[in-house]
């Protein structure tokens, strides 16, 4: 997700913070400062850092359970509505998704129990502390209440909340992943719409923001599953471009410029004398090379040298992931003998999926 920053790396998972989460913390510190000066600002911030830690622990509940089923989690992003652990894939067995979705709330429940014991031991009442930043209420009581809200909120059956995943897993068991996701996504968006109306009427900007994120999350989850299902059974050889130009590694940039302007191709595999892939010359590489080195510089000086390649037998989902993580708009397809056989581009994949879904309807 754009506008997020990595703040830590735990057991192979990057912990990222979205800029809107930081804005929320800043807003809360500012509120404290306006209402009761710097002591309150510090107390507010401390509370939120502790709360933030509880949310990270919740997410690592999901991550640890996913790991038990062999699913890695490259990153977890903290948003104003809480954390989103981005699993590498959704487990195919609905029961596994069900357990992964419930593992987070289970951690939150454990935190609640620990805090409740701490509050009881300290002799304070166990009631709900509605103001998370009241300075005369101990931080344990306030964290207890905040975590209770997190628990209840996450059990609402709307994507990308945990309750939405539980709902999807239950539906998928009966009607398959495609329909289950569509219905769970629809329920999530309907809920977000209702919440948005409430936020608008109150008016409460925070509730509006939460509604907005749930709406987006529900939509993108449904899209991701639709893409995955549309590509089922496909491999790289089905979706690669077979007619394309290459550029020799020692050619001047001008030669690539001529090719770029003469046709629709924007990324050129760079080959050596024997036709083996040595790198990729993207349009960005070309433009930057031209302005920095001039048209007589060689392709070798401007190309992306360490560009990964993919085998023609690689499956759809892996190919998509490889393309995404490379950051390049295209990858060279190289067979087992080292021969360049195709070009995998984002545009071509999009076209193919459009054609496939049009045929199906
Ligand atoms: Zn969760």
Q: What this model shows, in words?
A:
The structure is a single chain. The chain has helices spanning 19-68, 94-121, 139-154, 162-175, 177-201, 205-230, 236-239, 253-262, 283-293, 299-302, 316-326, 346-360; strands at residues 4-10, 13-18, 75-79, 82-86, 247-248, 268-271, 277-281, 309-310, 330-334, 340-345. It has two domains: 4-230, no CATH class; 236-360, CBS-domain (Roll), CATH 3.10.580. A hairpin with a 5-residue loop joins β9 and β10. It starts with a strand and ends with a helix. The chain is built from twelve helices and ten strands. The mean pLDDT is 86. Zinc ion (ZN) binds next to α1.
What keywords describe this structure?
361 residues, alpha/beta, 2 domains, four-stranded mixed β-sheet, 12 helices, binds zinc ion
